[in-house]
Amino acid sequence: MASGSYRNGTSYSKPTKLDRTTSSTYTTPKPISKSRVSAGGGANIRRSNATPLTVKDDAGVPGRVRVAVRLRPQNSEELVADADFADCVELLPELKRLKLRKNNWESETYEFDEVLTESASQKRVYEVVAKPVVESVLEGYNGTVMAYGQTGTGKTFTLGKLGEDNIAARGIMVRAMEDILADTSPSSDSVSVSYFQLYMETVQDLLCPGNDNIAIVEDPKSGDVSIPAATVVEIRDQQSFVELLRIGEAHRFAANTKLNTESSRSHAILMVHVKRSIKGRHDGEDGFPVENGQASSLVKSFRPPIVRKSKLVVVDLAGSERIDKSGSEGHTLEEAKSINLSLTALGKCINALAENSAHVPFRDSKLTRLLRDSFGGTARTSLVVTIGPSPRHRGETSSTIMFGQRNERLKYQKDYMDSIKKLEEKWMTNQQISKSNKSWIGSHEGCMDGGEASVPSTSDGMNDDKQLLKNEKALRQSSEDEVSSLKSQVTQWKRLEAAANVEIVKLQKKLESEAHQKEKLEEEINILKNKLLQLSFEADETRRSLDRGGSGKVFSGFDAFMSHARSSQIRDSANGQKASIAKLSEQVGLQNILSLLESEDADVRIHAVKVVANLAAEEANQEKIVEAGGLSSLLSLLRSSEDETIRRVAAGAIANLAMNETNQELVMAQDGISLLSITAADAEDPQTLRMVAGAIANLCGNDRLQTRLRAEGGIKALLGMVRCGHPDVLAQVARGIANFAKCESRASMQGNNTGCSRLIEDGALPWIVKNANNEAAPIRRHIELALCHLAQHEVNAKDMITEGALWELVRISRDCSREDIRMLARKTLTASPKFQAELRRLRIEC
Ligand code: ADP
Ligand code: MG
User: Fold this and answer.
1) Which DSSP symbol is given to 755?
2) What is the pLDDT of residues 561-580, one digit of tens each?
3) Ligand 1 shell residues, CB under 6 Å
4) pLDDT tens sequence across 32-82
5) Is 62 helix (H, G, I), strand (E, B) or coil?
6) Which pTM does this prediction carry?
7) Closest to 785 (Cα-Cα) out of 711, 700, 712, 722
8) Spatial separation of the C-alpha atoms in residues 269 and 314, rounded to whole Å
9) Which atom of ligand 1 has the smallest separation from the CA of 151?
10) Which residues, at least 6 apart from 307, have a Cβ–Cβ distance to it below 8 Å?
């Protein structure tokens, strides 16, 4: 099987030293090369089949074409379009095989000299495909590197990629020139380049666009092929070469636009001519006549200048897709024919060389004529077959692969199938023999039992012996077959093991890269944590400056009274800090901050919730936070967190978000009122209660939520918090009551509410009356407003009179320092018949 990887089933050695001497040094155009070209490797020494060759040896074999296959990675379009389909190719690089899937249960296997997977680097591709050819060119032989494949599979990527932005991406042309320049000396050697395209059997100079339809000339004696009219540019450094390739490519594009065709329809051919002066070597290696092992003295004194010439041809072939349906893609029949002509001719030459055929049909096309002296014979040739992974192009891929395989490999495959068939037949025969054996033994046992009458005659005995011998032979044969089948199974298993090992290495690499990824993520988390810490520090600072300003609130903005207390200086510094928080959190990303609310690290959770609360204090951020799911996260913190600080800050943030109607409804929809009520019942810390009361107070101001808010215990929770007695908490409770009373009075004025106030029903009135004259202004003001609102609905009058609220109203209408409230109280008293009657009864004037 090992020899199966060689095209002829036999292998060639490198030329011997003598061989190279005669072929590689030319003072005049080489006379020897012709015979080598036409001999198709005939001048080489054959090695016996039994000698195994390493791949490296094989890489330098002249005369035959080394074929590698390269799979292009899926592109973004294929990633989407082919996501649900299995790839149509499977590579087994260790076994140098490619499996082409026919359908779910069948596939065909092909062998190549090299199998390059989608992850093969450009460097590796160069080393495997082109480097042996380049080295041989530097030693004085001609060589060719070609890429064949469907358009879009990576021929130009493999050969012509300039890789200016990314040197790892450089293709074969650039890398080859780099090696050539590194190995030659500008003072004694010359490297020059021509660049053409071949389209519809005409040669166009890509370095001089006007120069088209130029002639190919063959020296009848030497067999050298040249294009005298072509532009030849001397190359001294890599940069100018890259520049030249770029110019060539631009001209190619322009020429094809003019001809109204695509680049994929033409062959691009780069020729690198290397001329090397060989000095000071006269040991026979450079082609001097050697007499008795010593160079003649005549040669020593009159040494002619020795120039060794060779060329490297790099061919980016036209797309291999079948375009024979002329017109189907806007191609003329002429074009289809001529493109096929060159590719077909090339295929025929490759096959003729592979089969050691006496006739290689170089003359059949311009392309093969051009390649004549750099293809076969002493020249080294590499073909890289490029394919794509898409199952949609399976048909094209299959025919592309066949180009690389051709007759000899297919013959090999047929032989393989024949052998299997033969083995099967043999197995069937064995089965039959063993059956007949069994029946023979059975019948003889019967004879023994029968006694004397059945003793066989002598001739019968002979026959039996013969039969026994025959059976013996058959048995031995079948055991031998079994042994050989076991052997082949072992080989098979070894291969599978090799493939499995490759898989293991791959998995290990994947594991490593995943570990690396994890490390990176952890690093990122750390960075985020640090940024968060900084943010939370700034948040604390902001809060402190606001506290210093007298508000004592994290949530700000809704409390009109508080805004008066802030000095502008403090506001400025707080604004500065807020801006820097906004900036930092923009860097970190809201989503990242929110995700840290669920961090396992309690510290991280605290910092994160502080930052969110600070952001939520800004109206501009509120919508973004809610959209990103921040409200839900905060509510779930309230539900699940054991930590008082977290609950306090989360409630503050919720209070801030609950400043607009949409968010208020969202809080209710997510069962926020029960969560706030539970927190209100459990909390001891006045600051926590202040936040919770603030949040409920905001909800109390929404007309649409009245019924639900009360039904779910919102009012009771609010009133329950007065137990703490802290003026900040009481102020929020009073604000909530005022908000609720205002909504109720609005509803009753619109005729939507006919019953007694829910506040009164829930027992708020005694507390209201008791605090109506509270010395803390924020509490007093809210309660005064609440009383005015309650008094506007006549059904409340009776309770208000019995609970003593009427007296407070009278006091407000007389003494309140705010004129608007004073007037409102007076108006309300006058408007109520019940209040009027009571006042008259007590002879009080209002
Ligand atoms: P062709 O010359 O065969 O028509 P190209 O070389 O132009 O194909 O390649 C088609 C596209 O696929 C290009 O965008 C190219 O960059 C990309 N490509 C080809 N081969 C590879 C590869 N091995 N790795 C990454 N991208 C590739
Ligand atoms: Mg291309």
Assistant:
1) S
2) 333 333 444 445 556 556 66
3) 72-73, 75, 149, 151-157, 264, 386
4) 222 222 323 322 222 222 222 223 334 445 667 899 999 999 988 888 877
5) coil
6) 0.47
7) 700
8) 6
9) 4
10) 26, 27, 275, 276, 277, 278
